[in-house]
C-alpha cells in the first residue's frame, strides 16, 4: 500500500485500510471508485489515506502498533476525557491500563529497527488520536533508552493523559478559530497544571505519569511553562513527552495546515535541540525513525518521481525506492537504492 493525498485520488486506486467514523466502518478496505468519495472524505477532515494501486503492490507499511490497538486506545481515551468533562472523578483506569499494557507489549516485541511513528488522523478527532500516538512515541523512545517495562507503562500513561487538563478548559477557547487573546492564551497554558491537579485525586495513576502531564510543555532552555524549568530540572519522562508531543503534532493534519512530512518534523526537532529539546534524547530518537516512511511519494534531484519501497537500516535519509515517472513524465517501474546512488537525493516529499 502507499500514501496519497485525498485530493489526488485516481480511478485505479483501492482503499488499503478501512476508514472509521465514530467507531463504525465508513469505507471498507478494498473499496474502489474511491475518487467518488473525495468530497465526503475531505469534509470529514481526511486529507491523506492509504491506497493500493499499480505502484504499491509490494510496499508494506510497518506500523509501530496494530490498528486495532490504536482504535481501542482512541475509544478509551475519548470515553475517559468525556467523563472528566462531565465532572466524574472516578476514572475507569482499568481500561486505560489495559490498552497501555497492549501498546507497551506490542512495541517491546516490535523488532523493526526503523519505526514509522506517524499516525494519520482526521482533523476532527485530533485530540484523541494525538493522545494515543504521543503515548506510542513515548513508549518507543523509552524502549530506545532501555527503560524497564514498568517505566514504559508509567511513561505511556503520562503520554496518553498529557493533555487531560484541556478537558477542563472552556470549549469556546479551545476550539476558537480566530487568534487567541493574551488572556485566552494564558487560560490554555493552564492545562498542564489543571491536568496534574485533577490526577492528584486519582491514586491509581503513578506520580511519574502525573509529572509527564505537569511538565510536557517545559523546554530545556527554561522557555516553557508552567514553571519555566531548565534542563535536568525537568523530569526525563517529561523531556521525552515534549519530543513526542511536538513530533506528533507536526506530522498530523490540522484544520489550518497540512501535516509536515516526517523528515521536516525531524529537522525541526534537530534544529531546536538544546533550545527546546534534550540533545541526548533527540540523539537516541531520530536515528531510529524512518524519515521517509514506506509508501511516501517523493521527487528526486534527477527530477524522477518515486515511491518509498523499503528502508536501509541506519540510513534514514536513503531508502530504497520504486521509480514511477521520469523527469519528462514517462511512466517507469524500476527500483533505485539511494544507498548505492549517493549522488541522488530526495528534494521534495509529495506525501
Ligand atoms: Fe499540552
TrEMBL record:
Q: Which SUPFAM superfamilies match?
A: HD-domain/PDEase-like (SSF109604)
Question: Which domain of life does this protein belong to?
Answer: Bacteria
- Report the InterPro entries cross-referenced here: HD/PDEase_dom (IPR003607), HD_GYP_dom (IPR037522)
Give start and end of each HD-GYP domain: 105-301
Q: Which PROSITE patterns match?
A: HD_GYP (PS51832)
Q: Which SMART domains match?
A: HDc
Pfam family name, one: HD_5
> For this UniProt entry, which residues form the secretion signal?
none
Spell out the protein name for this chain. Answer: HD-GYP domain, c-di-GMP phosphodiesterase class II (Or its inactivated variant)
Give the species.
Halanaerobium kushneri
Amino acid at each position: 500500500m502507499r500514501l496519497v493525498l485525498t485530493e489526488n485520488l485516481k480511478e485505479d486506486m483501492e482503499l488499503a485500510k478501512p476508514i472509521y467514523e465514530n467507531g463504525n466502518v465508513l469505507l471498507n478496505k478494498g473499496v474502489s471508485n474511491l475518487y467518488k468519495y473525495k468530497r465526503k472524505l475531505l469534509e470529514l477532515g481526511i486529507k491523506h489515506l492509504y491506497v493500493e494501486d499499480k505502484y504499491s503492490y509490494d510496499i508494506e507499511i510497518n506500523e509501530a502498533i496494530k490498528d486495532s490497538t490504536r482504535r481501542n486506545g482512541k475509544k478509551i481515551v475519548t470515553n475517559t476525557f468525556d467523563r472528566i468533562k462531565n465532572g466524574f472523578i472516578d476514572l475507569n483506569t482499568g481500561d486505560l491500563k489495559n490498552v497501555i499494557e497492549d501498546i507497551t507489549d506490542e512495541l517491546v516485541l516490535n523488532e523493526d529497527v526503523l519505526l514509522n511513528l506517524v499516525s494519520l488522523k482526521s482533523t476532527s478527532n485530533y485530540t484523541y488520536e494525538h493522545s494515543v500516538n504521543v503515548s506510542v512515541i513515548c513508549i518507543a523512545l523509552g524502549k530506545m533508552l532501555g527503560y524497564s517495562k514498568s517505566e514504559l507503562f508509567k511513561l505511556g500513561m503520562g503520554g496518553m493523559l498529557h493533555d487531560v487538563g484541556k478537558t477542563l478548559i472552556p470549549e469556546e477557547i479551545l476550539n476558537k478559530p480566530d487568534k487567541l487573546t493574551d488572556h485566552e492564551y494564558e487560560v490554555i497554558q493552564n492545562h498542564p497544571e489543571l491536568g496534574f491537579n485533577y490526577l492528584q485525586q486519582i491514586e491509581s495513576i503513578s506520580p511519574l505519569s502525573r509529572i509527564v502531564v505537569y511538565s510536557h510543555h517545559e523546554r530545556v532552555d527554561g522557555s516553557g511553562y508552567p514553571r519555566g524549568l531548565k534542563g535536568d530540572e525537568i523530569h526525563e519522562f517529561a523531556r521525552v513527552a515534549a519530543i513526542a508531543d511536538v513530533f506528533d503534532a507536526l506530522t498530523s493534519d490540522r484544520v489550518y495546515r497540512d501535516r509536515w512530512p516526517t523528515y521536516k518534523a525531524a529537522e525541526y526537532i534537530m534544529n531546536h535541540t538544546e533550545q527546546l529539546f534534550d540533545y541526548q534524547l533527540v540523539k537516541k530518537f531520530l536515528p531510529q525513525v524512518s524519515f521517509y516512511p514506506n509508501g511516501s511519494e517523493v521527487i528526486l534531484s534527477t527530477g524522477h518521481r518515486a515511491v518509498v519501497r523499503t528502508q536501509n537500516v541506519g540510513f534514514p535519509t536513503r531508502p530504497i525506492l520504486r521509480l514511477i515517472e521520469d523527469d519528462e513524465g514517462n511512466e517507469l517501474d524500476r527500483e533505485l537504492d539511494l544507498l548505492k546512488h549517493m549522488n541522488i537525493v530526495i528534494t521534495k516529499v509529495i506525501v
